[in-house]
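thought: fold this chain, then report.
action: predict
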Amino acid sequence: MEFKIECTGILVPIDFSEITDSVIESAKFFSKNFGNKLYILHVIEKPPIMFYEEGTELLISPEEYEAILRAQEEAEKFAKQKLEEISESLTNEGIDHEIIVQTGEVVDTILDVAQEKNVDFIAIGSHKHGLLDTLLLGTTAEKIIEKSDRSVFVVKGNPLKKLEKLLLGYDFLPNSQEALKVAEFIATTLKAELVIVHADTDESFAHFKSVYEKVLQKKIKILEELKNKLEERDGIKVSFEIIKEKPSKAILDAIEDVKPDMVILGRRKTSVVKRIFLGTTASKVVKNSPIPVMIVRREK
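observation:
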């Protein structure tokens, strides 16, 4: 194995909703197997600035303003109590962790803490049906996936308890090559099976059948060589499949057929200033996948 993840840490933003336990349990799985430190983060949103900024006229009554402040204090008290319980449980299990409570804008705070702690990835959760607008922090989670400059792991309802089979979406580009490194590292460490899926959409663009067949055979040769190299070098079971469908459908079909424990996809890295929206393929997979999805960001 030529690649090794620097297991610096996992940022786990939680809001104490029904998915929180699954997100924490999934993060614990990684911590126990790879040694990642867990950073459990809860962000308390500030009231809109018009309500409390000094030097401005309040748009609500003083009584309503005081009620907002009391509600915020109660929220902080509740969060600290719940986080103390989580911390005690993690300590009892011998898991290295840090509890963080911050007040501010949720998305920016999560992204800032991720950079400050230099975590390997951010673990967020979605409801079982995978709708983006029902993610752990509502539209917040979708924005995290879109804007994060590092990898994001999306929990889909149930916690991750085993990684015996991984599904990798692969398109030969640098993004998926980076994802391959992560998949190889996980598969080698846990002795998991790796299934590589390539969505072949070239046929519709090839003007000559002979050209398409030549390209297809080259892809098969590359994947066979990759399979043999990983099996011989890492001692893991590897298979590949070329599916003539759009990438998102090919991956979702493969999930149903292969029944992996997790999907791994690659994604380009952008600067903090030039954060861009999540690619169509990854967003559709995250939205519809019944299992956890790891979206890997390129290092360079």
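thought: worth noting. Residues 128-138, 270-278 have pLDDT under 50 and may be disordered.
final: tokens above.
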